[in-house]
Amino acid sequence: MTLTISSPDENIRHILETFGSDIEIIDWDICGPAPVSHIDMVITPLLTKNPDYQHLDGLDFTYVQCSTLGYEPLIPHLRSHHILANAKTVHETSTAELTLSLILAMQRNIKRSIISQAEGKWDTFFSPGLADQRVVMVGVGGVGSAIAQRLAPFEVDLIRVARSERDDAEGHIYSTTQLPQLLPEADVVILIVPATDETRGLVDDDFLSLMKDGALLVNMARGVIVDTAAMVKHADRLRFAFDVVDPEPLPTGHLLYSHPNVLISAHNGGYSEALEPRLKRLIERQVRHLLAGEKLENIIHR
Fold first, then answer.
1. Residue 299 within a domain
2. What pLDDT was estimated at residue 48?
3. What is the model's pTM?
4. Beta strands 171-175 and 157-162: pairing type?
5. Which residue, of 89, 168, 241, 283, is most buried by count of CB atoms within 10 Å of its CB?
């Protein structure tokens, strides 16, 4: 059996070429119409390629393998017989790594140290730090779990929040309905939830108004989770670090670029040197599963 699989870039093409005649490779980055009418598995590009998933409409395909953890923009273009898998195991560690980097940079005021170094000034100061701080993390999926594991050595008071209240092997999980009681005591709030009808606009003026002066909000989820105008309103009172924002990219000259209480990472969460080899291993496993007639990993049940 020969499988027809689309390749969005040269790196993925190289992976598919190792399967020889078992694979027919179609070069397609989903930025224009598909060059063929049938593809067994579509592999999506990374978001920096700006794919247009409307080009999936009318195409005969069975499987979609995301190169990203997020898959929400694909959903309107999938039918009941389509099988969707995301890139679990590829991005969690790098995203958690950047999350801790942003938190530590803000909690230890690294921006001030950089400015002092540039000015040739020896500048010793106190900062909030991370030890003994109360951290409220909204989202307990794969990336949330990776973040929680990395927070543990810093001896924080971690409060985990999800859609429903429950207990798991790591302890208690609060419900998002309890956020009004949790936010006033939070020193750091981390967002790592998918974009759904429930989470879009979750962080608005009311949400931010509940946070105490000087608290830090870290958005590692989706830009649409946080109302950008509300961030601007509270930027003098709170602190913000984010990898995603709405709109994205943030327009040139926007106030948040230059605000001293803001640290911006331009959607770099998964982009480390770990990305390519981990994605390579995942795609190799998925192709082997298909060739063997086995079920794919990371299937998203819609």
1. no
2. 66
3. 0.91
4. parallel
5. 241
